[in-house]
Amino acid sequence: MNNRRSFLKKTSAIALGSLLLNKDILANALANKVHMPGAGLQLFTLFGVMDDDVAGNLKKIAAIGYKEIESAFSKKGGYYGMPPKEFASMVKDMGMHWRSHHVLGAPFKMPAGAKMPAGADGKPMVIPPMKNLRDNYQELVDQAAEGGVTYLVCANTPIGTLDEVKASIEVLNKSADAAKKAGLLFAYHNHDAEFKPIDGVIPYDLLLSQTDKNKVKMELDLAWATKAGKDPVELFKQHPGRFHLWHVKDLDKGYEHILELGKGVIDYKRIFDNASLSGMKYYFVEQDGAPKPLENIATSFNYLQGILKK
After folding, report:
1. Helix extents (H) in 94-181
2. Residue 89, number of CB atoms within 10 A of its CB
3. Domains, the chain, with CATH or none
């Protein structure tokens, strides 16, 4: 109990200090425009079909107009069945940049009552056993560095209890140190669970305050944050410059179904207008369980071109 009290007291002190330090960052961000990168894609969107023809699918993605790639889990294991350098070369040959890769924070466990989204064949997706940061952080860092990506991202980690949050924070800090030594940047990707209170504490607040902001950046999944009742722009104001990466997807009115961009209720024009404030370097379209992934990502790409030209 004393350890928990000490943990929470330390969190509060760091959060207050961070708020004061962020004033200068906030002022600078409001005064400058961000250089907008090309549209990016998180390949988990094509999880059901990606491994069937990796080169062919990358070629189709490039033909749509995507320039930045973030990789994730593959049914073939590794990097879509390839060593990291081979996958990097393939992406480059398609005229795109491999910017980021997702890994798990700890062994994957499906939450009680939850179901994997359906793939293109209509059947629930199956994720093979994967290595994770808790048990294999150095190996995962070394592989990502070998592939030449900029960011290694923790896609998910246990946060069901305060003890799990504390253990996950230790893993994130340890992984971030290793990533820095290898020349990588490290980031954390959220879902909506991070914003649900545990014993009166919001896990996302702890993840922000108990990790080194210079080593652990955030990949803000804008739709999951919105579903949790958070305004992304307000998060940018509270933690300017921390959100190097974004996931962009849309939601229906009930926040139950993930849709193509422009088909739901999220005001992405307002969010992109505040890109400089967030510190965004790259953004990636993601549509979990996309029913027609190549058609869906084309729709999202065209929507982005429209709002970014206005």
Report:
1. 133-147, 162-181
2. 15
3. 2-309 (3.20.20.150)
